[in-house]
Amino acid sequence: MRQNIVAGNWKMNKTLQEGVKLATELNDILASKKANCGVVVGVPATHITEVVKAVDTEKIGVAAQNCADHESGAYTGEISASMVKSTGAAYVILGHSERREYYGETNETLKVKTDLALANGLAPIFCIGEVLEEREANKQNEVVKSQIEEALFHLSAEDFAKIVLAYEPVWAIGTGKVASPEQAQEIHAYIRSVVADKFGAEVADNTTILYGGSCKPSNAKELFAKPDVDGGLIGGASLKAEDFAGIIDAF
Ligand SMILES: O=C(CO)COP(=O)(O)O
């Protein structure tokens, strides 16, 4: 069954102490009222162990924001999928547009990262999405299709079924310029059709596709009401427990 999920991406924000405080506040909110969707927080690698301790991981899954494209060895500064798994994280965000843009991640490296994440029992939250010029040239479908094709089409249907997709139009990230619910629905339905063509209708129907980009408590309900929008990947609004809880409340 397709799961609705609201996932936070804290990006490079919060000290360890601030992060534990935020996670604790969110945990307290969700202890008193049950969420009608899965909840995930994507935290800096330095915070994962403590956030895992601070929350009820049955209610709040913890995600890393990246993992290495090598298993282990002489890769100074990198963190492997097995290391991430050993912290208690259940998810890893892969292919965020900021990593593609600033750290040179390609579909080819993301293919390797996805394999390593899956081999180590982590569920990838795999990000795709076009930049503004591509949207203006009406190339968004082409772009997301090639991102999925090049990084994920080698997977078995069984492995693909473990992946959460996140459609994040780069022009909407951190800009306050949210995609309209209609724009989101249109491309989410297209993404689902790409998945169906390759992995079959059942896998496609069960795939969770999140929307990300300036999603807030004030616009989440309208976006999540669309049949192919199964929740959100939230940046700025995940940094305050009440705002993030407000988005969870949209379900
Ligand atoms: O990049 C995002 C989540 O991964 C979205 O960020 P904002 O919600 O801050 O626009």
UniProtKB/TrEMBL annotation:
Compartments it resides in: Cytoplasm
Pfam families xref list: TIM
Enzyme class: isomerase
Functional note: Involved in the gluconeogenesis. Catalyzes stereospecifically the conversion of dihydroxyacetone phosphate (DHAP) to D-glyceraldehyde-3-phosphate (G3P).
GO cellular component: cytosol
Catalytic machinery residues: H96, E168
Catalytic activity: D-glyceraldehyde 3-phosphate = dihydroxyacetone phosphate
Keyword tags: Cytoplasm, Gluconeogenesis, Glycolysis, Isomerase
SUPFAM superfamilies for this protein: Triosephosphate isomerase (TIM)
Organism, as annotated: Saccharicrinis fermentans DSM 9555 = JCM 21142
Recorded GO MF terms: triose-phosphate isomerase activity
Residues at which substrate binds: N9, W10, K11, G174, S214, G235, G236
Similarity field: Belongs to the triosephosphate isomerase family.
UniProt keyword Isomerase, yes or no: yes
Stored PROSITE patterns: TIM_1, TIM_2
InterPro entries referenced in this protein's UniProt entry, alphabetically: Aldolase_TIM (IPR013785), TIM_sf (IPR035990), TrioseP_Isoase_bac/euk (IPR022896), Triosephosphate_isomerase (IPR000652), Triosephosphate_isomerase_AS (IPR020861)
Subunit structure: Homodimer.
Name this protein carries in UniProt: Triosephosphate isomerase
EC number, as in UniProt: 5.3.1.1
Pathway assignment: Carbohydrate degradation; glycolysis; D-glyceraldehyde 3-phosphate from glycerone phosphate: step 1/1; Carbohydrate biosynthesis; gluconeogenesis
